């Protein structure tokens, strides 16, 4: 035995000879064995719901209430009118009131909707909605309770009978709502109003604050009217830019290729069908008689058995067989995109760029069974991008801004971990005419819609980089990038052409003077002839370049139109500035 090994053995012996602390027995450890409710778990782990950090928490609260209001209005086909009021009650102590004109909540569900974690109308359905877990609003109720000890006040009306007013808290031990002061309200009100207080939060005006969150919500939801009343009392209204209520997203069935064994067993347990075969046909997308015939031959049990008695092994056999079988791709018609025209209009009114390019990719499927679709827009120039540094000439430079959305809800946090950011970063933007894309006047808008958004965490702030999603995101970026490339190229050529023209005209004047002297001809006439020659030469050069340039998806005509629009805008702005300048000068004189 080596010296080292001997010392080690002695040390182990010493520690077990009662000198050191004794280990616990299984029985002793078992005394500490306790069960916890999901509410207790989240009470301890609020950060998992995105409820962490003073600013982020307040934005997440606004996010949870706003997404719920938008979802409810969409289901009820109501044009949303949402008002968020934030009041400062003390240091890092705020009250948030969220009011909507949605369908309201019934007396039976209101308590559970806002006071029971993992309860709601969305978790169990494959439908494109902003919420999907049943923890958003109830998580916020829990936060209010643990930071202030106060109740969440609710007034809700469904349009049938009188609206009700009540106070809600959560009993964390049992994950059940506690309701107090339930009364009827003698006023007409349809919708939901929630008022809750929070400590340890802060209202600021930053890129991750409620105002920016609501600005982006308005961009992706141009049919919604959204009002924010800031702690200062200032009221900011994002007006709806159109009055078409989006189509109600359709509920979809799971696709056989994407189903997991556990899901199959659960669905079977709650099925009202008498036979496994009819249960499969009724509960899965694209599963018809032919598939059942194939399945009958492949599995080792009778598909006429009661689905309630489907064992794990049998479900596993079906799932494995599904993997080998051919099915038509999942239905994707239940997805409702914002639409190119609306995205364009929103970006135009809020970002005021020089050029916009928008694409809607065809719906696709990830993980074998979840339909999704990407919509993307790139706005270039004007007020696109974020404010950057000021250059030596005092010019305010702009930086890239990536606006990420999932089912029309803005994602402001966990930027680096999100598939959208990764897709943008993976593109070689130099190929699209942008030498330094991070410092370009660019707003990149991406909305991922799906019946199930694969978030990276329960905080719902970043999308996981599923292979198929990444692929579609990249294609969307390339599609929009190509159009931008053509526009930037055109813009650059126009500027170069103008510089050349000026230079040639300058020489033309000098040449005209000399030639006039030599030939005794009129100087102006010579100058005009030379100008015409210059223009002819430039046109020929342009045509040569046009033949050499790669074909973009936009026609020259479209680009020309965009360019003209830009020139018109610049002219107007110059005129405006000129007028302002004159006014200021007059004012100065008067003083
Ligand atoms: N303003 C509202 N109007 C009508 N129903 C609402 C409103 N807010 C919440 N609900 C109901 O309460 C349920 C629970 O809301 P909650 O935010 O906790 O979960 P969710 O929206 O289903 O999913 P997520 O956890 O992803 O937000 C919702 O599913 C919805 O049925
Ligand atoms: Mg929600």
Report on the structure:
The chain has 591 residues and is of the alpha+beta class. Helix 13 (419-425) runs parallel beside helix 14 and helix 14 packs across helix 16. It has helices spanning 3-16, 26-30, 38-44, 54-76, 107-115, 136-148, 210-220, 261-269, 276-283, 289-298, 312-324, 340-351, 419-425, 467-519, 523-548, 556-590; strands spanning 81-90, 93-100, 152-157, 164-171, 176-184, 191-199, 225-229, 235-238, 355-360, 364-366, 370-380, 386-390, 396-399, 401-406, 409-411, 442-450. The protein has four domains: 42-238, Heat Shock Protein 90 (2-Layer Sandwich); 261-324, Helicase, Ruva Protein, domain 3, CATH 1.10.8; 340-487, Ribosomal Protein S5, domain 2 (2-Layer Sandwich); 489-581, no CATH class. Strands 5-4-3-6-2-1-7-8 form an eight-stranded mixed beta sheet. Strands 9, 10, 11, 14, 15 and 16 form a six-stranded mixed beta sheet that branches. A two-stranded antiparallel ribbon has the order 12-13. The structure holds adenosine-5'-triphosphate and magnesium ion.
């Amino acid at each position: 035995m080596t010296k080292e090994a001997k010392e080690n053995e002695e040390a182990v012996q010493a520690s077990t000879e009662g000198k050191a602390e004794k280990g616990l027995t299984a029985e002793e450890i078992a005394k500490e064995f306790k069960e916890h409710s999901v509410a207790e778990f989240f009470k301890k782990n609020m950060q998992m719901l995105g409820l962490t950090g003073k600013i982020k928490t307040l934005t997440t609260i606004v996010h949870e209430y706003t997404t719920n209001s938008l979802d409810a209005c969409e289901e009820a086909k109501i044009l949303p009118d949402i008002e968020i009021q934030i009041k400062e009650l003390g240091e890092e102590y705020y009250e948030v009131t969220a009011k909507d004109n949605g369908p309201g909540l019934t007396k039976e569900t209101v308590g559970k909707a806002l006071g029971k974690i993992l309860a709601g109308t969305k978790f169990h359905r494959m439908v494109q909605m902003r919420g999907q877990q049943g923890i958003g609003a109830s998580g916020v109720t829990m936060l209010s309770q643990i930071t202030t000890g106060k109740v969440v006040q609710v007034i809700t009306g469904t349009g049938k009978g009188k609206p009700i007013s009540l106070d809600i808290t959560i009993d964390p031990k049992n994950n059940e709502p506690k309701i107090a002061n339930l009364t009827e309200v003698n006023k007409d009100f349809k919708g939901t109003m929630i008022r809750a207080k929070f400590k340890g939060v802060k209202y600021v005006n930053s890129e991750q604050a409620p105002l920016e969150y609501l600005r982006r919500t308005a961009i992706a939801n141009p049919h919604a009217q959204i009002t924010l009343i800031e702690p200062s009392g200032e009221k900011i209204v994002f007006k709806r830019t159109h009055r078409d209520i989006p189509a109600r997203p359709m509920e979809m069935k799971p696709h056989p290729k994407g189903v997991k064994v556990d899901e199959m067993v659960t669905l079977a347990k709650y099925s009202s069908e008498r036979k496994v075969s009819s249960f499969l046909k009724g509960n899965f997308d694209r599963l018809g008689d032919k598939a059942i015939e194939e399945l009958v031959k492949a599995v080792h049990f009778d598909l006429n058995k009661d689905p309630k008695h489907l064992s794990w092994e049998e479900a596993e056999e079906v799932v494995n067989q599904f993997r080998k079988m051919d099915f038509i791709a999942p239905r994707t018609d239940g997805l409702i995109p914002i639409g190119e025209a609306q995205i364009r209009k929103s970006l135009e009114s809020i970002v005021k760029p020089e050029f916009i390019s928008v694409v809607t990719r065809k719906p696709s499927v990830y993980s074998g069974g979840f339909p999704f679709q990407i919509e993307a827009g790139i706005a270039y120039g004007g007020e696109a991008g974020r404010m950057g540094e000021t250059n030596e000439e005092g010019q305010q430079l702009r930086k890239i801004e990536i606006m990420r959305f999932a089912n029309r809800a803005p994602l402001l946090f966990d930027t680096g971990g999100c598939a959208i950011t990764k897709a943008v970063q993976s593109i070689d933007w130099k190929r699209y005419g942008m030498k330094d894309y991070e410092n370009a006047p660019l707003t990149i808008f991406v909305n991922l819609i799906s019946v199930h958004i694969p978030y990276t965490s329960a905080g719902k702030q970043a999308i996981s980089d599923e292979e198929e999603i990444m692929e579609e995101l990249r294609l969307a970026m390339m599609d929009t990038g190509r159009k931008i490339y053509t526009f930037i190229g055109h813009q650059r050529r126009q500027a170069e052409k103008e510089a050349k023209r000026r230079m040639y005209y300058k020489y033309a004047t000098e040449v005209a003077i000399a030639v006039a002297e030599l030939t005794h001809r009129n100087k102006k006439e010579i100058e005009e002839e030379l100008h015409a020659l210059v223009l002819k030469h430039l046109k020929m050069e342009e045509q040569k370049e046009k033949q050499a340039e790669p074909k973009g998806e936009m026609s020259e005509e479209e680009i020309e139109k965009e360019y003209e629009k830009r020139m018109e805008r610049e002219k107007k702005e110059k005129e405006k500035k000129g007028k302002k300048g004159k006014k200021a000068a007059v004012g100065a004189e008067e003083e």
